[in-house]
Design a protein that fits this description.
Oligomer: single chain
Helix content: 25-40%
Distance between the termini: 31 Å
Shape: globular
CATH architecture of the largest domain: Alpha-Beta Barrel
Radius of gyration: 21 Å
CATH topology of the largest domain: TIM Barrel
Number of helices: 12
Structural class: alpha/beta
Largest sheet: 9 strands, mixed
Number of domains: 2
CATH superfamily of the largest domain: Metal-dependent hydrolases
Length: 446
């Protein structure tokens, strides 16, 4: 049985930070020790954390790895490697690929691709449509993270806009419904208004007015109404407005039927950043006002917001050209998500313990992921060593996402991921991906 000792660490876990060491045997955490309370000679491998943080691997519940069908800009192989370089050891991928993951066959095919190519652990959402609610009861709930529901614009037939179809989805899901909430009728009305005055390519600064606060609030309110009517478990994705926070409850995750996620971009940026970054930070729902951003930042320090994720959505730079209508929406964020949050920690906006809670513990608890998300004996050894005092500028050559860019390119971050372990295997160290092992299919206790 191969054993590894990670020593001289500051372990951040379950609301506490303390000096200690962790023992890995094969793919699991075998012990958590106080520094010095062990004989180093009995271990096969010794890793010196050098006083840096040791945290559970980040679990990103919201990514778009573009595989299959859109692999010219991203794929499971490239993006899972960008993930582990950023300390993300598990991810849950969205269904708006080509073909869309709206059939059992398409879902099974994605698992086969990940099994052969993903260096991180993985699961996939099943996509709801106006016409496939009859398939939901047959899904394997132990092996699928949840149902993705687009209650706003989407590609193909994935916009669910019929009340009867929504009712069936909420009644038949019997697992987490992860919802993109924007009211399409409001967006369409706003789009027509701005096109009337400014033509087909409206300036990017109007994007948050087109995909407005009211569009988000109206749709989130409807999703919550449906969840309460049907007793469904609802997770509202990428919350963007202060107004929507009024719909949420500030209490422990385990006591909630309705939970909410905020994404890195909406914590970093406001509508003022469109002047500097233009369409590079165009995403749906849109980045909104500085008041909204600040309200979201305040909410992550409480139990109003449950999960911090990325909505990692790579596009080619050529696809990001244009304004509010022509440029594609989405940006690659997974490689720098943890480090971006560590920068906010340095600014006093969030503590390291709260980062671990919202990026590691809570995704595991919310989705009932088996044996991950915590540093506990018997849990899978998904672990990350983070140096919180290693200021460095992001360079183009360091970006591992296939699309080759990041809105953070050129920014100086305060921290650095030193090493990442997935299932006990060292997969990233000293700026290098270590090949030779692959991630595992996440499983869920339901």
């Amino acid at each position: 049985m191969a054993s590894t000792l990670i020593k001289n660490a500051i372990i951040v876990n379950e609301g506490k930070s303390f000096p200690g060491a962790v023992v890995i045997e094969n793919d699991k955490i075998a012990d958590i020790l106080q520094d010095g309370a062990f004989d180093e000679n009995i271990f096969d491998n010794i890793v010196d954390a050098k006083g840096n943080f040791l945290i559970p691997g980040v679990i990103d519940d919201h990514v778009h790895f573009r595989d299959p069908g859109l692999t010219y800009k991203a794929d499971i192989s490239t993006e899972s490697r960008a993930a582990v370089a950023g300390g993300v050891t598990s991810y849950m991928d969205m269904p708006n690929t080509n073909p869309q993951t709206t059939t059992i066959e398409a879902l099974e095919n994605k698992f086969l691709v990940a099994q052969e190519n993903s260096i991180a652990n993985y699961s996939f959402y099943f996509g709801a449509t106006n016409n496939n609610s009859n398939l939901l009861p047959s899904l394997d709930k132990r092996n699928i993270c949840g149902i993705k529901l687009f209650m706003g614009s989407s590609t193909g037939n994935m916009l669910v806009d019929r009340r009867d179809a929504l009712n069936k989805i909420f009644k038949n899901a019997n697992m987490i419904i992860a919802a993109h909430c924007e009211e399409q009728s409001i967006i369409s009305k706003n789009s027509a208004f701005y096109k009337k005055y400014f033509g087909e390519d409206v300036d990017i600064k109007y994007h948050p007015l087109i995909r407005s606060e009211e569009a988000c609030y109206r749709s989130s309110s409807l999703a919550i109404e449906l969840a309460r009517e049907t007793d469904a478990k609802l997770h509202i994705l990428h919350l963007t407005t202060e107004k929507e926070l009024s719909l949420l409850e500030n209490r422990a995750l385990e006591d909630k039927q309705i939970t909410a996620e905020v994404c890195i971009a909406h914590l970093l940026y406001s509508d003022e950043d469109y002047k500097r970054l233009g369409s590079l930070v165009k995403c749906n729902p849109a980045i909104k006002s500085i008041n909204d951003r600040n309200a979201l930042r305040a909410a992550i320090a409480t139990d109003l917001i449950d999960v911090i994720a990325t909505d990692h959505a790579p596009h080619l730079l050529s696809e990001k050209e244009g304004g509010a209508f022509k440029a594609t929406s989405g940006m690659p964020m997974i490689q720098f998500s943890l480090l971006a949050m560590m920068k906010l920690e340095k600014e006093g906006i969030i503590s390291i313990e709260e980062i671990v809670k919202k990026m590691c513990h809570n995704p595991a608890k919310l989705y009932n992921i088996e044996k991950r998300g915590f540093i506990r004996k018997g849990y899978k050894a998904d672990l990350v060593i983070v140096n919180s005092n290693s200021a460095h500028k992001i360079k183009q050559k360091d970006i591992l996402s296939k699309c080759g860019w990041s809105p953070l390119n050129g920014e100086t971050l305060s921290s650095k991921v030193e090493k990442t372990f997935v299932n006990g295997n060292l997969v990233y160290s000293n700026n290098t991906i270590i090949e030779g092992s692959l991630g595992e299919h996440l499983t869920f206790a339901r």
